[in-house]
Amino acid sequence: MPKDNSIKSILIIGSGPIVIGQACEFDYSGSQAARSLREEGIEVTLINSNPATIMTDPVMADNVYLKPLEVESIEEILKKHEIDAVLPTMGGQTALNLAIKCQEQGVWEKYGVRIIGVDIDAIEITENREAFRNLMTEIGIPMAPQSTAKSFLEGKGIAQEFGFPLCIRASYTLGGTGAAIVYEEEEFDKMLTRGLHLSPIHEVMIDKALMGWKEYELELLRDANDNVVIVCSIENFDPMGVHTGDSITVAPAMTLSDRTFQKMRDMAIKMMREIGNFAGGCNVQFAVSPDEKEDIIAIEINPRVSRSSALASKATGYPIAKIAAKLAIGYHLDELKNQITKTTSALFEPTLDYVIVKIPRWNFSKFAGADDKLGLQMKSVGEVMAIGRSFQEALQKACQSLEIGRNGLGADGRELTDQKKILESLEHPSWDRLFHIYDAIKLGIPFKTIQQKTKIDIWFLRQIEDLILLEKQIQKFTVDSIPKELLFEAKQKGYADRQVAHLLRCLESEVYSKREELGISRVYKLVDTCAAEFAAETPYYYSTFEYENESVVSDKPKIVVLGSGPNRIGQGIEFDYSCVHGVLAAQEAGYETVMINCNPETVSTDFDTADKLYFEPVFWEHIYDIIRHEKPVGVIVQLGGQTALKLAEKIERYGIKVMGTSYDALDLAEDRGRFSNLLKEHNIPYPKFGVVESAEQALDLSDDLGFPLLVRPSYVLGGQKMKIVINREDLEHHVVDILNEMPENQILLDHFLGGAIEAEADAISDGENVHIIGIMQHIEPAGIHSGDSYAVLPPYNLGDLVMQQIEEITHKIAIALQTVGLINIQFAIKDDKVYVIEANPRASRTVPFIAKAYQEPYVNYATKVMLGDKKVTDFDFKPVKEGYAIKVPVFSFDKFPNVNKELGPEMKSTGEAIRFIDDLKDPYFQKIYSERNLYLSK
Amino acid sequence: MEQHPAVILLEDGTVFHGRGIGKIGTTTGEIAFNTGMTGYQEVFTDPSYLKQILIMTTAHIGNYGVHEEEVESDSIKISGLVTKKFSSMYSRVSGTDSLQNFMENDGVVGIADVDTRALVRHVRNKGAMNAIISSEDLNIDSLKAKLAKVPSMEGLELSSEVSTKTPYIVGDDNAAKKVSLLDLGVKKNIVRCLVERGCQVKVFPSTATLEDLKSFNPDGIMLSNGPGDPAAMPNVRENIKEMVESDLPIFGICLGHQLLALSQGLTTEKMHNGHRGINHPIKNLITGKGEVTSQNHGFVVSKESVEKSENVELTHIHLNDESVAGIRLKGKKVFSVQYHPEASAGPHDSRYLFDQFVKNMN
After folding, report:
1. Helix, coil or strand: residue A736
2. How high is the pLDDT of residue A211?
3. Residue A235 needs a FRET pair 20 to 30 A away by CA distance; which of A693, B140, B195, B295 works?
4. Are residues A745 and A762 in the same domain?
5. Catalytic entry in B254, B275, B280, B318
6. What pLDDT score does A715 carry?
7. Domain with CATH 3.50.30.20 in chain B
8. Which pLDDT tens digit goes with each residue over A538-566?
9. CB spacing of B290 vs A225 below 8 angstroms
10. CATH code for the domain in which residue A842 is found
């Protein structure tokens, strides 16, 4: 059946602010769905409270509502628009929960809105563990022994029956909140109580823990004619016991026989058909016994697009959300085309001739006291994906993408050799277990021990062992004597030149020259869903070292946009928003756009975004090779956060043009010494400061500056290791601490302006003209990171005199830095005097917020200025200024029960929401204003 | 493991270098590629792959070793293997051996570490052709000479090489139904699928006539899959024509399907590139439903000839190229499909065809 023409207008519900367990993958799915539906001539209305998303941009939907995800907001929209149907499957559990709430309150019925893409009964049954289990038993799908408890007493009874270890999960929660594996009674009692509290319906599920079983996921799509395809199989490197979101995962499944895989496929299809009759996407998780029986047990089913379906879409090239949206409006799979080949059918199962590895990115250092062990509750804040022609290559590339200061897996002199620590880490995984597996093998810890402790499939472990054997071979040579075959093998196995240089005891550049000399260079292959069986049109590439290069370079002028890599605290979805707009603007300016990024959750890595997508690590070697291949006019580094910005120096050094603000100006703003000279020159006030390299120097300087002091390492992200100290002991301790973790880093000491008000301004500049796009005033006093504070646009109580100073200073600095593009300046205001805290000549976290609030495409404008296509004076700025917009920081502290909600100069929030108010009498504003000092620590 | 350099040379002169796997030696065959990501053992032992050098497009082969039960015939039938990454170690508790040993024992030559993607793109554009792999002779001129002697697949009858020489019976004597199976190179799983559905199956050599098959008192006839060019098997075609006239229910798969079509006056043609993989989309025109199927064929029934035929009805089409994927004979309980409902390797979406066959025998 073709599309249902009675549906003319659809409401898509977004997933709200980014929290752990629900990140920007839903911006990707929501954007895809919106685009897919508008293609069909359907009017799309979007609701999401997250202003940093692309989906809430006017380019994505016909009507956008940046409103709290509450029933009232939905009703307000339904009153205003004739909505025929709601698609709640694109916004994660948040959207599904809101859809259920509206259903319960009769909202959909009242306004005659159909629910498409899922049925509410299906959500109910998958979330109600007991009903789900009964259903699975009925259709003969095995599950782990499990029971639900609604009281402490019931829980205790179940534990006695099953015996330990047990898994406890709270019903209806996100990303495994309140889930844990427990090995003993005392722990069990604690987790049981916690789970009962966390669950909105005060119910926990208790399962027998299948520790060490192999874990798999399948991504399914079904149409209204009950045709089902499996888009992707994903195998977890980390076996059962670690949340999928925290597991390293691999696609396609590496160690599954066809017999077991097909059995799993049959089970998945049966499960999807049984939970309800709906057209859309679905994710099913399984465990397989690691013995000769290969028993398969179903873990769970999610009748919606998910983090894994975003990954599966990027892994296979099959855009799940895009197709799921079309299926929701009635299309059958056989009526749609494969979006990559454009000639073959969408009713098929993608096949891969490469391997993808996803590694999560954690931020434990942000949460002092947090339990950094991985378990059933997701703790990672982002992820990277890498594509290679082998598992080893993909694994190395993924490690290069992580931005954790490593050059890949091993071969960087940063191995751990403490056996006790390694063994502990193997058994109780944290973020670094992968690296410790490498260390363990290298140290010669028996393979059996490693396997017993990690329970990781031996095939994966042998692949890592093979890398160590290769390294031993390489180490026998020097850069002059290494045979071509060996160097080629290292490159094929994903080693970066830096790693090879470490092994050969030479410079990275020497390895590069050696490669050039031997003709070992990167080639690019296409992600095409079909293993080259058919010709494909879509320019989605990854690099490898092989014979044929498929990436043909056009003769059009090109611009490369560097992405922001994995999401982490301090650098999240807002930079992806900027990158996507940068791409669109450069296209409008007539350039062919080339996107480089490695974050599978994003819109920037959607193959529909840029003219050419290179799914590659934002790592110098990969970027440089792409630039050498594509020969772009220049590279945009201002939009991809610190990740992209920190590459500017090298890009310029290698004679490649940095678009917009020059590297020198970027460095000038970052280099505290040079920057303060500039401020002094222009008579701009700033807090007294100094730069030190040791604790001794710090103590001397403190006499000069006076306490309290703001202490921070230079060149960091999101206020990492930034702290306010009030006495000499604290200062000494913190400086030693920083130097221990970041040796040879310079440390900045600023006199801290206690009790000051903070504000920030964002502006676009072409070097001659400056336009301030918005000024935001923080609600909390100075001392809380700007990313963590409530902020109000425009300022709510800054006097004219102060505003004037802010405006003047912003102009002066933008011009003095010769800014071409965006700039963000942070201010502290005390006794009506405005001090400059810092200036960042790049897209900031607040730019998307201001663009949404004022309804103007500032990143688009700024990009055209960067490209030299337009001057600031060419734009007719017409911001919509009504009332105030409040930026609401959103935290994920509930994932870390032992961590106090304490705020300070180091950023801890994972996401943000926007809230519009008419005036300052608004009760919401009154409430947060009265609580402004509540969480300030140091 | 000792490293042996190896080379693969195509008929058009294209050369790729790699590492020798399996037996160290030389082999020839028609080059083809299979896009399945699981089930290499089932594929390699499928008799339909006789005389074919197979490129596996998935990046890793051999990871889970081999399992004595997961075979489709008694030995490896492909004449050579081309892969990207070849795992000589494997991980599977129930596994019985490594793929390396399995290949060596059956004397199969292969080449690994090849840019298989480039090779597939080349073959995709140039079409099917012969090739030679060697891990003992790296001299291109000498390989060219050897390759020149290899006959083209077109016009080649291969079925008799893999068909059973003597009839045998599988299944329970008290089974509800009896099926005579014409073995043109049958996969074990076809027999298994019938036995699972309460049939006793007698497997006959490819030369068997209607009379031979009838000696088993069958309720229906199964025409199996197999290798080679269907047009080169006129005798079998004529035998099948008689079988159709007997009014016994008939179910044909792959080569059996092609021969059934030929017996009804339809024609077959060699494809530019065959369909080989486990993700092929089929639409059942009778029910309107889709199926993801396992396929392995380099010849296909001409669509034009089906459309012109008065007694043959098109029941299934391949959604990617609209080619003929299934037919039935009007007014008879005779049907056949180009793909593999028995799967192995591959999805089980099409098993209903066996049910339909059993129902036809009622």
Report:
1. helix
2. 87
3. B295
4. no
5. B254
6. 66
7. 5-148
8. 999 999 999 999 999 999 999 999 999 99
9. yes
10. 3.30.470.20
Distance (Å, whole) CA B337 – CA A353: 28
pLDDT for position A879: 96
Q: What Cα–Cα distance (Å) separates residue A167 from each residue in A297, A427, A428, B23?
A: 15, 17, 16, 49
Query: Is B342 considered catalytic here?
Result: yes
Spatial CB neighbours of A272, under 8 Å, sequence gap ≥ 6? A220, A222, A228, A282, A284, A301, A303
Q: Which residue has the tokens 């990854």?
A: A542
Q: Are residues A492 and A444 in the same domain?
A: yes
Mean pLDDT for A109-121 is 93
Residues A771 and A724 both lie in one domain? no
β-strand pairing of A747-751 with A689-692 = antiparallel
User: Measured between CB atoms, which of B70, B87, B118 is closest to A259?
Assistant: B70
| CA distance readout (Å), A794 to A573, A762, A852, A879, B122 | 23, 12, 13, 12, 61
Report whether pLDDT(B164) > 90. Answer: yes
Task: Pick the catalytic residue from B70, B72, B157, B342.
Answer: B342
Contacts of B87 in chain A (CB under 8 A): 459
* Residues 6 or more apart whose Cβ sits within 8 Å of residue A441: A447, A450, A461, A464, A465, A468
A206's enclosing H/E stretch is strand A204-208
Q: Is B340 among the catalytic positions?
A: yes
In whole angstroms, give the CA distance from residue A75 to residue B180.
67
Per this entry, what is the length of chain B? Answer: 362
Instruction: Give yes or no for a contact between A239 and A456, defined as CB atoms under 8 angstroms apart.
Output: yes
- The torsion of the CA quartet A470, A472, A474, A477, rounded to 10 degrees, works out to -160
Q: Which residue spans within A693-734 are E strands per DSSP?
A: 709-713, 723-725
Let me know whether A198 and A261 are in one domain. Answer: no
For residue range A329-381, what is the model confidence (pLDDT) as tens digits? 999 999 999 999 999 999 999 999 999 999 999 998 888 788 899 988 899 99
Chain B's closest residue to A292, CA to CA, is: B94
- Are A768 and A888 part of one and the same domain? yes
Q: Is residue A356 part of a domain?
A: no
ipTM (interface predicted TM): 0.97
Q: Which residues, 6+ apart, have CB-to-CB distance to A32 below 8 Å? A: A319, A321, A322, A325, A606, A608
Which of B92, B115, B348 has its CB closest to that of A262? Answer: B348
CA B64 to chain centre: 22
Distance CA A812, CA A806 (A): 10
C-alpha A189/C-alpha A182 separation (Å) is: 9
Go through A502-511 and write b for each residue having 16 or more CB atoms within 10 A of its CB, e for each that does not: bbbebebebb
- CATH class of the B159-360 domain in this structure: alpha beta
Asked if A214 reaches chain B (Cβ–Cβ under 8 Å), the answer is no
Domain that holds residue A156: 145-208
- For residue A489, the domain's CATH number is 1.10.1030.10
Cβ neighbours of A222 in B, within 8 Å: none
Nearest Cα of chain B lies from the Cα of A325 at a distance, in angstroms, of 19
Burial A572-582 (b: 16+ CB within 10 A, else e): bbbbbbbbbbb
What is the model's pTM?
A: 0.95
Residues of A whose CB is below 8 A from B115: 546-548
- Shortest CA distance to A836 belongs to which of A759, A931, A731, A770? A759
Which helix (H) or strand (E) is B252 found in, with range? strand B250-253
Q: Is the dihedral of CA A298, A300, A305, A310 positive or negative?
A: negative
Judged by CB atoms closer than 8 Å, whether chains meet at A531 and B117 is answered as yes
Report CB contact under 8 Å: B290, A459. Answer: no
Give the per-residue pLDDT at A893: 87
pLDDT tens-digit map of B120-148: 999 999 998 999 999 999 999 999 999 99
Strand partners, A387: A356
Residues from chain A that touch B320, judged by Cβ atoms under 8 A, are 343-345, 348, 534
